[in-house]
Amino acid sequence: MTVSALQESSDAADQCGQKSRKIRKFVNWGIKGSLALFDQGLFSGCNFVLSILLARWLPADQYGAYAVAFSAYLLLLMLYQSLLLEPMAVFGSGEYRDCLRAYMKSVVRLHFATSASMLVLLAAFAAAATKIAPAGGLPGAFLALSIAGPLLLMLGLARRAFYLEFLPAPAAFGSLLYCVLTLGALFPAYKYHLLSPFSGLLLMGLGALVPCVILFARLKPRLSAGARNPSLAEVWQRHWKYGRWALGGYAMMWIPANIFYPLVGSFRGIAQAGELKALANLASPVLQTYAAISALLLPYAARTLREKRYVGAGGLAARITLCSVSGAAIYWGVLLVFKGPIFHLLYGGKYMSVAYLLPVVAFGSVACSAFFGSGTVLRALESPSLVFAAVCISSCISLLIGVPATWIFGLQGAAWSMAVSELLNFVMVIVLMRRMLRRAPSSKRETTGATLSGLPIPSPDL
């Protein structure tokens, strides 16, 4: 056999090996992605089913109280995610990759400090609600949330920690256990007439307790020990430097998505807050699907873009946006065709009078899906300041329009205001990301510390 023939044979073997590795990598990521969807689908699906069942079984005013309390929980979740979960996904996959065990100890301590603050704050809200709105179950809802909130957040922390090692299977097990325990306790509570906003939220917290213990017990041996031992002060400083922008961004995102529950309840009665929640429930599967993908995608994007910085960022954002919008469009296309039967099936004939607003909710949900791509890339690039700037501008505009619209048009005004806010979020984040990429140094894309209209683009070594 000639030398050229041997070379051709070697090249063919290399090409075959490369194709085989690509196929294995694709299958591996397909399995991990499916498990991530299964994990988030179980956890959020359980909360979705619980919300639907409470809408069917509780009076409208009590379900409205649950909706207001749950919107407060979402605010706490966003604050928690900005200061703990999102920085953990970025730094745990980068800066502290070699000492995850010590790093996670500090993160857990931060969780307990945060939880203590939340408990005191929510208990104060419950006490205030007994003076302002004693009827309708609002005080009990906030009291239950003061117990359930920290437990639910700890379960989220335990689940997300496994994603640092790209291990969604244990997280999915925790979600499955939470689902079984929570829904398993809900039906006896309904059967024996114990169901209320208080008991519904409390069951969520108690259902999270057992999987928390199991997941943290399984987590420790899987984390790399390493020689470094970052102090609590160091970890908090890094989380705060990153999370202060994410904190503002999530707070601004919460405002248009959740402020209209108490607003419409104040202007038109707490029952309309329940009607708005019944509409928003149907957008939850889309949001939670992307939350599941984000749990796996953000650490991957952070690790990939850590070395490349701006190279490929625009393309990655475009691919994520295309996939997310396509998925949302398919979901809502099916849902809108069968909206009548679906509403009747989910709510047992209740809330049919507001089904006509479902296309408005669909419009906002698709716009929110479009935001996902650019938002994920900016966070992976440790540029949450730009996400904050985008949502801050859009939220302020939304409130200027939405508050008078809700006062004048009630539920219809609130639904349209929420949808318009999501569209503005998408437009603003696209504008800011494109400006950032244009201003990035062309000769040395990995250069850090550039600015955008006075907003810092942090170095990956913050």
How would you summarize what this structure contains?
This protein has 462 residues and is mostly helical.
Fold and architecture overview:
This protein is mainly alpha-helical. It has one domain (28-456). Helix content is 82%, strand content 1%. The protein has helices spanning 3-57, 60-91, 100-132, 138-163, 168-191, 197-219, 232-258, 260-268, 270-280, 284-308, 313-337, 339-347, 358-380, 384-409, 411-439, and strands at 451-452, 455-456. Strands 1-2 form a two-stranded antiparallel sheet. β1 and β2 form a beta hairpin. It starts with a helix and ends in a 6-residue tail after the last strand. The model is unreliable at 442-462 (pLDDT under 50).
Secondary structure tally: strands: 2
Sequence of secondary-structure elements: HHHHHHHHHHHHHHHEE
How many helices does DSSP assign? 15
Spatial arrangement of strands, main beta sheet: 1-2
Number of domains: 1
Large-scale geometry: globular
Rg measurement, Å: 23 Å
Low-confidence stretches: 442-462
Largest sheet: 2 strands, antiparallel
The quaternary state of the protein chains shown equals single chain
Structural class: mainly alpha
Sheet-strand content, in percent, reads: under 5%
Mean pLDDT, as a whole number?
A: 80
Distance N terminus to C terminus?
57 Å
Relative helix content? over 70%
